[in-house]
């Protein structure tokens, strides 16, 4: 799928809250992008990732703006895309608690709203990651940022990509985080695992990516904004 025909993914089920028992897993898969090349494993080493961000290619993000479903003042936010430097690089993700007012129960990156005291988008991501999952800054090496991603609820999100030392100790905030888990970076950068969904609701055509990952006995359903930002990361790495 080329950028000009890219889908606009729905960020979260709040956009479809008028439907009872909406389950994004039940929305039909209209395609899987197995025809696209995976990012080579040699491009996923710490040295290669540092070089990529130090000398970024000319590229175009594929998904940057969702169809609006909520009228509210735009709010800036940042998320950390934490690549844990294990023998196989892993991306750290969270499952949000079910009682939260936004994005409840979803797979997400650590992150949140910018505070006036934050000096940069990276500072926001690092602060939020420490508050949310207890990831101390001394374990984190920021590589750079990806283009902003605007959700249907008017959050303007900056994804901050970083390397994380494997000996980091996490202390998830139980109010916000139900679970913390890791997915191989190679899995996420292989479009054979990128599913595309289509859904019609109240006359609006909505599309989004998902990247389901079987984590032992748990099926981690990565979709919406998180999957959209990962898709952009794939495009950045493959350009």
UniProtKB/TrEMBL annotation:
The keyword Transferase does not apply. GO terms for molecular function: coenzyme A diphosphatase activity; metal ion binding. NCBIfam families: PRK10707.1. SUPFAM superfamilies: Nudix. Pfam families: NUDIX. Its cofactor is Mg(2+); Mn(2+). InterPro entries: CoAse, NUDIX_hydrolase-like_dom_sf, NUDIX_hydrolase_dom. Keywords: Hydrolase, Magnesium, Manganese, Metal-binding. This is NUDIX domain-containing protein. Residues 74-204 form the Nudix hydrolase domain. The lineage of its organism: Bacteria, Pseudomonadati, Pseudomonadota, Betaproteobacteria, Burkholderiales.
């Amino acid at each position: 799928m080329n950028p000009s025909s890219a889908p606009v993914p729905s960020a979260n089920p709040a956009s479809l809250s008028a439907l009872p028992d909406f389950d994004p897993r039940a929305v039909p898969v209209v395609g899987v992008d197995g025809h696209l090349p995976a990012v080579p494993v040699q491009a996923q080493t710490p040295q290669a990732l540092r070089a990529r961000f130090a000398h970024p290619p000319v590229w175009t993000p594929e998904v940057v703006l969702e169809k609006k479903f909520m009228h509210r003042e735009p709010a800036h936010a940042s998320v950390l895309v934490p690549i844990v430097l294990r023998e196989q690089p892993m991306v750290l993700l969270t499952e949000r608690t079910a009682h939260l007012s936004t994005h409840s129960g979803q797979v997400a990156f650590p992150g949140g709203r910018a505070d006036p005291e934050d000096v940069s988008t990276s500072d926001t991501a690092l602060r939020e990651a420490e508050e949310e999952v207890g990831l101390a800054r001394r374990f984190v090496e920021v590589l750079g940022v990806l283009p902003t991603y605007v959700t249907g609820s008017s959050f303007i999100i900056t994804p901050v990509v970083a390397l994380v030392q494997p000996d980091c100790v996490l202390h998830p905030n139980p109010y916000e985080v139900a679970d913390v888990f890791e997915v191989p970076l190679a899995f996420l950068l292989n479009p054979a695992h990128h599913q595309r969904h289509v859904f019609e609701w109240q006359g609006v055509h909505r599309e989004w990516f998902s990247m389901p990952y079987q984590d032992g006995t748990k099926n981690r359903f990565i979709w919406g904004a998180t999957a959209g930002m990962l898709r952009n990361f794939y495009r950045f790495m493959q350009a």
